[in-house]
Amino acid sequence: MSILDNIKRKLSDFSYNRRSKPPRSVVALNVKAAKSVGIIYRADSEESFELVKRYVKFLREYKIKVRTVGYFNENEIPDDVNPKLGFDYFCKKDLNFQLQPDCVVVDNFIDEQFDILIDVTVKEDEVLRGPVFFSKAKFKVGAGGKNTSEDLDLLITLKEGDGVRQLMKGVDHFLHLINTD
Fold it and tell me: What is the DSSP string of 79-140?
């Protein structure tokens, strides 16, 4: 890790720790009762990319409006990746000096009032923690055990060595269990 990267991480941590919670009302929803779902993930992870695509297809079978934002830890979005309906991406060049996304794609995602936001990161992620924190989603779900877990409303506990696949299974399981009657 370069000195510049280290400085950026420290600035990101400082900025993140000074934030104030955006106003929102938390509403626990069963996935079948949701009308809209937002998913944020690391698109440069092939496993995450494929699992998110499959989960979006599954959610759309329930007639749920789904929107995703994937982050590529590269200077440019790869040429073989084409944004399509509901799938948006951003990359390193879209980050400011504090590792916070500064682009229309992420701004629109944050402003959208999703019924459920799913954070598909299993490790600390300086880039994706901001959009998860600032999202106006009614119910935020993701992996527990991260420093940013306090930003989520439902935490999925993973065992040592578990990855995105186990997280997605847990998310789906618990979002079906929630009783909204």
Answer: TT---BTTEEEEEGGGB-TTS-B-SHHHHHHHHS--SEEEE--SS--TTTHHHHHH---SEE
Enclosing H/E stretch for 167? helix 164-177
* Nearest alpha carbon to residue 56 among 70, 41, 67: 67
Q: Which of 155, 168, 145 is nearest to 49 (CA)?
A: 168
**Other Cβ atoms closer than 10 A to 113:** 12
Residues 128 and 121 sit within 8 Å (Cβ to Cβ)? yes
pTM for the full model? 0.87
pLDDT at 96: 86
39-74 confidence digits (pLDDT tens)? 999 999 999 999 999 999 999 999 999 999 999 999
Size (the chain), residues: 181
- Parts of the chain with a pLDDT under 70: 1, 4-23, 146-149, 180-181
Answer yes or no: are the C-beta atoms of 127 and 86 closer than 8 Å: no
- Buried residues in 139-163 as b, exposed as e (16+ CB within 10 A): bbbbbeebebeebbbbbbebeeebe
Instruction: State the pLDDT at residue 173.
Output: 94
Query: CA 170 to CA 166: how far, in whole Å?
Result: 6
